[in-house]
Structures are given as structure tokens and as C-alpha cells.
Design a protein that fits this description.
Layout (H helix, E strand, L loop, with lengths): L2 H12 L4 H6 L12 H18 L17 H11 L8 H7 L1 E3 L9 E6 L2 E10 L2 E4 L8 E4 L5 E5 L2
Antiparallel strand pairs: 1-6, 2-3, 2-6, 3-4, 4-5
Helix pairs in contact: 3-4
């Protein structure tokens, strides 16, 4: 009999299994109903990304944070609020609040911050494949665009 075949009998006999036994058979240990911090962050990020994408075509509005008009940080604020994670109002404040990550570890739903001279001036939500959802400027609208600059920081909302 393999270790995997013993797990159900251990569970039925003892009602629980030790962390060591669980690790030996490749399981994970979480409290019932709990998600790990990484899983929760991914869930919020995916929801925020979906909300931002759903606003495709909404017009840019300076100082607007939805639900029908957005500036760049207003879109990210709105999307993450709908995902259950509040953010501050401006792109710089949002950058200051996120966990700073490298480009190599970025994931869909992470925030992309454009900067110049040490100042963050624009933010969007990473959509994968080098693209972001954002509300770029007056006369434009919420849309999916390629990241056009190498001067970006990445931040993960926790």
C-alpha cells in the first residue's frame, strides 16, 4: 500500500492527519475555509482586472473614480475597491501602498506605475503579455494598451 492509500484510512480513524503526514503525501495545510495570503491576493487581482476590463470604453475624466468616468488612478481605485481591497486616490499614493515587485514576478492584476524623475505619474492594471488596462488621458477612454515605456515599477496589492 502506498502512503496515499493510507491517508483516507488515517483521516477516517483519527479524524485528522498530522502536518508531517500531509507533507509526505504532497498535501497542503490550511485552516478549514481559509485561503493562503498569496491565493487571496491572486483572487483580488483577478477580480480587479476583470472589473477594469469591464469598463472598456468608459471616457477619461480628470479626478473621476467611476462608475462611468475614470482617470488612471480612479480606475485602479475603483477596480480594487470592487475586488474588496481599498487603495488610496493618487498613482503615487497607490505605489507607496503596494508591495514593490520585479518585472519578472509580475502577475495579471498587479499595478504598473509609470515614473519620471522619481515621481509616479500614471498607473494601470497589468493584463498579461506586456499589456495594461488604463485610462490614459483627456479625450481618451479606458482601454487595453501595450506598456510603452521601460520606466515602470510594479506593485502588488495586498
Amino acid at each position: 500500500m502506498t502512503a496515499q492509500m493510507h491517508v483516507p484510512s488515517l483521516l477516517s480513524r483519527a479524524g485528522a492527519v498530522s502536518a508531517l503526514t500531509l507533507a509526505a503525501v504532497g498535501g497542503t495545510l490550511l485552516a478549514p475555509g481559509a485561503a493562503s495570503e498569496a491565493q487571496a491576493a491572486t483572487t483580488h487581482a483577478n477580480k480587479a482586472l476583470s472589473v477594469a476590463a469591464s469598463k472598456k470604453g468608459a471616457p477619461y475624466g480628470y479626478g473621476s473614480a467611476g462608475p462611468s468616468r475614470f482617470d488612471c488612478s480612479g480606475l485602479t481605485l475603483y477596480a480594487y475597491k470592487k475586488a474588496g481591497k481599498p487603495l488610496p486616490r493618487t498613482a503615487q499614493q497607490q505605489y507607496n501602498k503596494t508591495q514593490h515587485i520585479s518585472a519578472s514576478t509580475r502577475q495579471k492584476g498587479d499595478l504598473v506605475f509609470f515614473h519620471s524623475g522619481g515621481r509616479v505619474y500614471h498607473v494601470g492594471i497589468y493584463a498579461g503579455s506586456g499589456k495594461i488596462w488604463h485610462s490614459p488621458k483627456s479625450g481618451s477612454w479606458v482601454k487595453l494598451d501595450k506598456i510603452w515605456s521601460s520606466k515602470v515599477y510594479y506593485g502588488r496589492v495586498r
